[in-house]
Specification:
4% of the residues lie in helices and 32% in strands. It has 133 residues and is mostly beta strands. Strands 1-2-3-4 form a four-stranded antiparallel beta sheet, with no helix packed on it. Strands 5-6-7-8 form a four-stranded antiparallel beta sheet, with no helix packed on it. The protein starts with a strand and ends in a 29-residue tail after the last helix. The C terminus is likely disordered.
Length: 133
């Protein structure tokens, strides 16, 4: 989950939802807004969310469906990746695999000085993200 400016963002295993929510409230009132679909289920079905500093971009970590691709690579499409959601425009891109910083819950800075989490064989330089190809 992530919160900013009266909005609570929740990642279910198959979607990202936005709720109106004020800090200190003990219930959610009203229906959520669906912001994007995510690849459902899999062995690694937890989802982590991080907002950028100005609250315009939401990053969603999606785990892999398996440990070593034992169910085939087609089921891995859009997985083991960080998805970027522009909160004004909608889904932007699926980013490089291995979102270790989001997965472990450690601090992560998706700012312009970093190419962000990526595999060790990625080649790119700031401020460009490494899209999955």
């Amino acid at each position: 989950m992530a919160w900013r400016d009266g909005k609570l963002y929740v990642a279910n295993h198959d979607e990202v939802l936005e709720f109106n929510y004020e800090l200190g409230t003990t219930t959610l009132a009203g229906d959520p807004t669906k912001l994007m679909d995510l690849p459902a289920a899999g062995n690694h079905c937890t989802r982590n969310l991080v907002l950028n500093d100005d609250g315009t971009l939401l990053y969603v970590a999606v785990g892999s469906a398996s440990n070593i691709g034992e169910y085939g690579m087609e089921i891995e499409q859009g997985r083991a990746a960080i998805h970027e959601l522009d909160l004004l425009l909608g889904p932007v891109a699926a980013l490089r695999r291995r979102p270790a910083h989001l997965r472990t819950g450690s601090n992560w800075n998706p700012g312009p000085e970093s190419c962000g989490p990526r595999s060790t064989n990625a080649t790119c330089s700031a401020p460009t993200w490494c899209p999955i190809t």
